[in-house]
UniProtKB/TrEMBL annotation:
GTP binds at residues 17-24, 85-89, 139-142. GO terms for biological process: regulation of translational termination. Increases the formation of ribosomal termination complexes and stimulates activities of RF-1 and RF-2. It binds guanine nucleotides and has strong preference for UGA stop codons. It may interact directly with the ribosome. The stimulation of RF-1 and RF-2 is significantly reduced by GTP and GDP, but not by GMP. Pfam families: EF-G_D2, GTP_EFTU, RF3_C. Belongs to the TRAFAC class translation factor GTPase superfamily. Classic translation factor GTPase family. PrfC subfamily. Keywords: Cytoplasm, GTP-binding, Nucleotide-binding, Protein biosynthesis. This is Peptide chain release factor 3. Gene3D superfamilies: P-loop containing nucleotide triphosphate hydrolases (3.40.50.300), Peptide chain release factor 3, domain III (3.30.70.3280). It comes from Robiginitalea myxolifaciens. The lineage of its organism: Bacteria, Pseudomonadati, Bacteroidota, Flavobacteriia, Flavobacteriales. The gene is prfC. CDD domains: RF3.
């Protein structure tokens, strides 16, 4: 098969949702359709169980599972589908943000009863900003939930999307009978007393056909016709180009648990979802069809075995073919590296692969060369954009609790930060280290892993910070900037990339600085123009 057709058949995407909306269940059903797994229950949920905050065995178990489910690949209708795992737990939101830099599209799962929830809002906002094509799947239609139109209103308002339904439910909860597929113009019914079986699709080009009454009863037929009329009047027609531009989001209804509406979603997905998209590097835009290989690290996973400190760096191939044993340039380090056992992922297995194509994810064994955001090329100096750090929510000093193990502690902190577990800030004034995280859970993870993987002990001390802001002076030589550096010295730190960061201790002091030093720009992410 030619290089071009290998690219054209890849679909790399992520499923995002608030925890419990049904992401794991949907993933599993998609894998079943792809024949990648044989039975339900095979995909382990990687979510942190409620109340597991201080249960380290649980955290370790999760880490094991999350290696296995980082990438789930399968074939369906000649397409190679790569599902990238996105943790739903809010303490791991940064992980998910980073994974979203490696997807070409997403499916957003929403619980029909709960509607749009907090985590969905945050994740969709990131996708919207990056114009990632999105399909919405409204799940759990077998339960009582919100009215379909109200829910679509909510999706539009809270998520800032423009939706158009491609399927529509017939009834809901107790009265749920099935789904009218607007895209394919057919009906699928829930069958049997327990409504657990699903009928084959029944073609229905024209819903005014009196056969509809026979099939679903008079009331439901009248309601469906009215609803479809309303859909046609209110929502824009589906246009693939608008979807690909991130301007229009098709909506499907179904029940992942009952495998209802999932095939429709998948069939439509393989038809409309984009193949690997071009990616913007700092230097230029790179197209998947270019012959020279380039790719970037979006995730690093430490191995489970604490004795072998090797890690798996996940690389998304952007252009060219990635080949085993071929030297590639690590752009940041300026050195060539060869990989003798690159891993490809298939369902829940990983295996050594000779050649990978744009859209694929390759897992590379690493002994400490990689950081999140690193780029590999065939020699060109490319740096991929779009992997910023965000201001953490929590900040604490980290102290060494075992003076004999200072080296181990520093090494451990360094490597955990490269993995993206948290962010390290080193204070300008006294060199003290401050760890910033998205959730409190990470402090426990760091402490536990430092001890078990590096033999180092740490303690924390509160450090009150409202927000970390990356500093960009309009003129680095100006008196204004020098004054800012002098007066605010106590609150200045360096991040891992040696960028200057202002740690504002309150909203008030942030505002004061912004007013007093208009020539000093403060950014809430590490990446700015
Ligand atoms: P997540 O990955 O988004 O966190 O959600 P997950 O798939 O784990 O689903 C959360 C819960 O919702 C699970 O129940 C799952 O069985 C249920 N669920 C998923 N899809 C549907 C659906 O279409 N209808 C209904 N009624 N329930 C659905 P649980 O009791 O938390 O877990 P489990 O014990 O069933 O595994």
């Amino acid at each position: 098969m030619s290089f071009k057709s290998e690219i054209a058949k890849r679909r790399t995407f992520g499923i995002i949702s608030h925890p419990d909306a049904g992401k794991t269940t949907l993933t599993e059903k998609l894998l079943l359709f792809g024949g990648a797994i044989q039975e339900a229950g095979a995909v382990k949920s990687n979510k942190i169980k409620k109340g597991a905050t201080s249960d380290f065995m649980e955290i370790e178990r999760q880490r094991g599972i999350s290696v296995a489910t980082s990438v789930l690949a399968f074939y369906y209708k000649d397409k190679k589908i790569n599902i990238l795992d996105t943790p739903g737990h809010k303490d791991f939101a940064e992980d998910t943000f980073r994974t979203l830099t490696a997807v070409d599209s997403v499916i957003v799962v929403i619980d029909v009863a709960k509607g749009v929830e907090e985590q969905t809002e945050k994740l969709v906002e990131v996708c919207r900003m990056r114009q990632i094509p999105m399909i919405v799947f409204i799940n759990k239609l077998d339960r009582e939930g919100k009215d379909a139109f109200d829910l679509m209103d909510e999706v539009e308002q809270k998520l800032g999307l423009t939706v158009t339904p491609l399927s529509f439910p017939i009834g809901m909860g107790y009265d749920f009978q099935g789904i009218y597929n607007i895209y394919e113009k057919n009906i699928q019914l829930f069958q049997g007393g327990t409504k657990k079986k699903v009928s084959d699709s029944i073609a229905f080009e024209d819903v005014n056909d009196p056969g509809l009454e026979e099939l679903i009863g008079e009331n439901a037929a009248v309601a469906l016709r009215e609803n479809l009329e309303l859909v046609e009047g209110v929502y824009p027609p589906f246009e693939r180009e608008a979807y690909l531009q991130g301007q229009l989001q098709p909506v499907f209804f179904g029940s992942a648990l009952n495998n209802f509406g999932v095939r429709e979603l998948l069939d439509c997905f393989v038809e409309i979802a984009p193949p690997p998209r071009p990616k913007q590097a700092e230097e230029r835009e790179v197209k998947p069809g270019e012959t020279e290989m380039s790719g970037f690290v979006f995730k690093i996973h430490a191995n489970m075995d604490p004795k072998h400190r090797d890690r798996l760096a996940f690389i998304k191939i952007v252009s060219g073919t990635f080949e085993r044993n071929k030297p590639y340039q690590h752009v940041r380090l300026g050195k060539n590296l060869k990989f003798s056992s690159p891993n490809a992922f298939f369902a829940e297995k990983k295996e050594i692969v000779d050649t990978s194509y744009p859209g694929d994810i390759v897992g590379l064994h690493d002994t400490g060369n990689f950081k999140i955001g690193d780029t590999l090329t065939e020699g060109e100096k490319l740096n991929y954009k779009g992997i910023p750090s965000f201001s953490p929510e929590h900040f604490r000093y980290i102290n060494n609790a075992d003076p004999m193990k200072a080296k181990q502690l520093n090494k451990g902190i360094d490597q955990l930060m490269d993995e993206g577990v948290a962010q390290l800030f080193t204070l300008e004034m006294n060199g003290r280290k401050v760890i910033g995280t998205v959730g409190a859970l990470q402090y426990e993870v760091i402490q536990y892993r430092l001890e078990h993987e590096y033999g180092a002990k740490c303690t924390y001390e509160p450090f009150p910070v409202h927000k970390a802001c990356w500093v960009q002076p309009t003129d680095a030589e100006s008196d204004e900037y020098k004054d800012f550096l002098r007066v605010r010295q106590k609150y200045l730190a360096r991040d891992k990339r040696n960028q200057l960061v202002f740690l504002a201790d309150s909203a008030f002091s942030l505002q004061m600085v912004q007013q007093k030093y208009p020539g000093v720009k403060l950014h809430f992410t590490s990446e700015f123009e």
